[in-house]
Amino acid sequence: REPQCLIITSIRDPMTWFPSKFMKVMNPKYCDGTTSLLYSPPKAVATYQRWIRHSDKLGRFRTNWSIPFFLRMYGTTLTEQMQIMNSNGGYSLLPPSTVIDNSINGAQVAQSCSLLMLQVERSQDWAPLFDHLAPPPGETRNSIQMLSLNEARCPMNAKRYEAVKAHGLNEEEISFIIGNDNFSPGLEEWFKVYGHL
Length: 197
Prior knowledge:
Elements: E1 5-11, H1 14-30, H2 41-53, H3 55-58, H4 61-64, H5 67-73, H6 78-87, E2 91-94, H7 107-110, E3 113-119, H8 127-133, H9 139-153, H10 157-167, H11 171-179, H12 187-193
Parallel strand pairs: 1-3
Antiparallel strand pairs: 2-3
């Protein structure tokens, strides 16, 4: 069956996803130009640890993480797709779904569309894929320009991020995330495929 559209999603190591999400949430406070210098890297780590433990501040992860939903629509698992991405240059491309399950919201769309999954850590290997898909001109350039502007406006953010990323998530925090009702099913498998469980 010829696909009529392409759904694109991505997966990233939770040890870097959570620090990045935290920095995005805190960006207004860390870059306000007045009190931002009060937030040292060690203080950022302490704030990050509190943020992880208060899932209401993280937001309902169930509504934001679409990967388990897509995997179910296409009748596959994250473990299977990670194996493919690990041997295929950091991506997997699934044909239109043959899963017929009207209980899955959006299942009819999956029956018409291919699903492209990207592994963020392997982004340097995506060039052949995107050359084939022909991304919009200037997309990469604009992303780099935004990053440079953010660094100029928030000079301490790189050090804050490195400190938070170095902390990552400890065993207690991982257990809290996996067992918290505010988070999505499938999180345990996410941590497992990246070797954290």
